[in-house]
Amino acid sequence: MCLRDLIFFIAMVIIAIAGLGLIMPVRREMNEKKALLRELQLQNEALEKEIAELKKENSELQNENPYTLQRAARETYDFCYPGERIYRFPKHK
């Protein structure tokens, strides 16, 4: 190997190391963005499910479904039949 080939090889190694130094932060940021995207997609799915449930309940309330009206009155306004007792438990998160 002559001196010229050695210098060329060393220059290529330096360029490769510099390239890796530039690529690694971009790669790390891309992985962080992918993780954030996945988290937001999961939140979106949960919210879409909640919206569907609320639309269904809204439809039942507008159609005056007796069971749904009674449940809404009990949960929202603490209505109960004479002789019944209402028990409240703390919600765990």
How many domains is the backbone divided into? 1
What is the mean predicted local confidence, pLDDT?
85
Compute the CA-based radius of gyration: 31 Å
Shape: rod-shaped
Written description of the protein model:
With 93 residues, the protein is mainly alpha-helical. It has one domain. 77% of the residues lie in helices and 0% in strands. The protein has two helices and no strands. It has helices at 3-62, 66-77. The radius of gyration is 31 Å and the shape is rod-shaped.
What is the compact description of this entry?
By secondary structure, the chain is mainly α. The protein has helices spanning 3-62, 66-77.
List its traits.
93 residues, mainly alpha, 2 helices, rod-shaped
Describe the secondary structure blueprint for this structure.
Elements: H1 3-62, H2 66-77
